[in-house]
Amino acid sequence: MTEQGEVVMTIQLKRRGILRTAGGLLAAALPLPALAQRAAPPKPDRIVVNASGGAMANIFRRTYFAEFERRHSIRVVDTSPVDFGKLRAMVNSGNPEWTVTEIGGQDATRAKEMNLLEPLDTSIIDLSNYPAVGRDSHVYVSSAYSTALGYRTDVFPNNSQPKGWAEFWDVRRFPGARSLRNHPVDNLEFALLADGVPLDKLYPLDMDRAFRKLDAIRPHIAVWWSTGAQPAQLLVDKEVVLATGWNGRFFELTRRGAPVATDFTGGSLKSSVYGIPRGTRQAYWGQQFLQVMTDPRLQAVYANELSYAGLNPEAMNFIADDVRPLLPTAPENMGKQFWLDVAWWTENGARAQERWNRWMLRG
Amino acid sequence: MSSPGDSRRTLARRRELGLFLLGAPALLVIGLVFAWPVLRLLSLSVEGGTLEHFEKAALDELYVTVLADSLKIAAMVTGICLLLAYPVAVWLSRAGRLGLALGLFALLLPFWTSVLVRTYAWLVLLGRNGVINRSLRDWGWIDAPLPLLHNLGGVLIGMVQVLLPYMVLPIYAALLRVDPDLSRAAEGLGAPAWRSFLRITLPLSLSGVSAGCALVFVLSLGFFITPALLGGGRVIMISMLIEQQVREFLDWPFAAALSTVLLAATLVIYALIGRLTRGTRHATP
User: Fold this and answer.
1) Domains of chain A
2) Is the per-residue pLDDT at A257 higher than 90?
3) Strands (E), chain A
């Protein structure tokens, strides 16, 4: 019931959006204790890092956690899952248990607006060589992933796959069953790119134009996928020959020798982000933990194994040659893609989804 | 002085109270974890004293169409389950000890596997290059793969497989209660087997049929993973739209309104099923 209450409060807050934003701005403008000028606060015996768990937790343990424990002799305890409601409740209670937490993609904007996060202390966390998208005031971008095109290499050998969405839409030159996600996110962007909108002119999205373009591809979509494992499965089973999907899933198939490859042209980049819950007692050590996460050598371990590469450009120096072209953050791939505008989707997601549902129903 | 009738009544009342007290913890749990949240949900849907959410949920073409489709799919699943389950239940009720054990084991085995895993198994079986289509092609029975997946047919196959036990078990239980001497007497009096089935066994098992139908129908309405995966995105159930509102957009008042409309539709249908089979319940010996 508390969780239900939480969400009710969230919704009520949503209505008072303007007030809340104003409050957030005010809080951000207030002078904050300059952490760096202070001597390091006493060491706790442990910090708590909350993330999504799974295969990732395993690699984190071997890299970031181990390095933090080595540098500072403070134990790292990890918890999961990522839970926005819980973050809110913790901050409101005034004593967050988490020192650092991962934040789900679209929730980062909300977390900032609701003033749930400590500002990042750039005198501790060195972001100077990060790209602009990785230099936020409150959220640390740990890695990037992309929704890109997966294809069968036996159907499109010798680099003959469609490159970009205009070619994906061209069913005469590139015949075969296709799969797109059953969701407006990414697909509206892809449709607009197919219709000739340049990468840097996507937002705000022209929904009318996007749906008109989607009408043209609809008969050729054999499957509208709904879970991340599906596109990989569909390609392996040869149910379709072209499918959009999260690059990590295709990466795994390619590494295991399946006839599947990824084309990043027009791919949609998204970031995994971390923040320090506002009011946590170990905030200083949280900043130190995020600093450990900027270590390019450790980021490279993560990228080599799961393809989720960090934004520190130096990480590329430690990545295996055969892995590099498979990473969304490799410089040669980065330029072909766009960053999904999370703010636009937070604002317009519900409207776009409803229109998407109507559109699907008509088909 | 109380009459013997009075004391008997007091005794009966006391016994009733005792039984009520024994049941009280369960009632309390149901009240706390079910009735109270449902009431909260109802109140959430009219939050702010506005009926706009209901207006949208009950009148907007999108939601009306999806609700009607969901009810239709639930009815189809229920019908197919009934047709498949009845013979199985009859067989189980007459099977020997070994047959019964094997039958129940086969029936309950899928319960130990997650619905998600079973749904993925269907993807492997029913796909264009799946086991079924490949075998049929290898045997030369078909030239082009049959469209078994990513459409309504695929959704029905997947849902029926998951829900079948919920239909078999109540019918089986009802059939066990039918006195076999009744059929024997009917046959002794010269009724052919089909007539004794139609006039005796079938009517006496209707309470199980109605319980099974109600269970399967209601559970069908709540499905969203199976139709999302096996329908290839072309089958939209109202539960998927509710889930979107709850999880993605945090629009709980609208989700509550949609749920309430679904709950109302379900209750109406439940009442109809009850009414259709009510007469037969009294006939149970």
Assistant:
1) 40-144+271-338 (3.40.190.10), 146-265+358-362 (3.40.190.10)
2) yes
3) 46-50, 75-79, 100-103, 140-152, 178-181, 221-225, 242-246, 260-275, 338-339
- Per CB-CB distance under 8 Å, the chain B contacts of A229 are 120
Q: Which two tokens stand for residue B256?
A: 């509550």
Contact pairs from chain A to chain B, CB under 8 Å:
74
Query: Which of A9, A360, A362 to substitute to test the interface with B, most B CBs within 10 Å?
Result: A360
User: Quick one: B243 and B275 in the same domain?
Assistant: yes
Strand pairing report for A140-152 and A260-275: antiparallel
Tokens of B133: 């289509």
The shortest C-alpha distance from B159 to chain A (Å) reads: 17
Contact B229 A361 (CB under 8 A): no
What residue of A is the nearest CA neighbor of B245? A350
Complex ipTM value: 0.81
Q: What is the pLDDT of residues B203-213, one digit of tens each?
A: 999 999 999 99
Q: Could A349 and B248 be called an inter-chain contact, meaning their C-beta atoms sit closer than 8 Å?
A: yes
pLDDT tens-digit map of A110-148: 899 899 999 999 999 999 999 988 999 999 999 999 999
Q: How far apart (Å, rounded) are the C-alpha atoms in residues B158 and B77?
A: 10
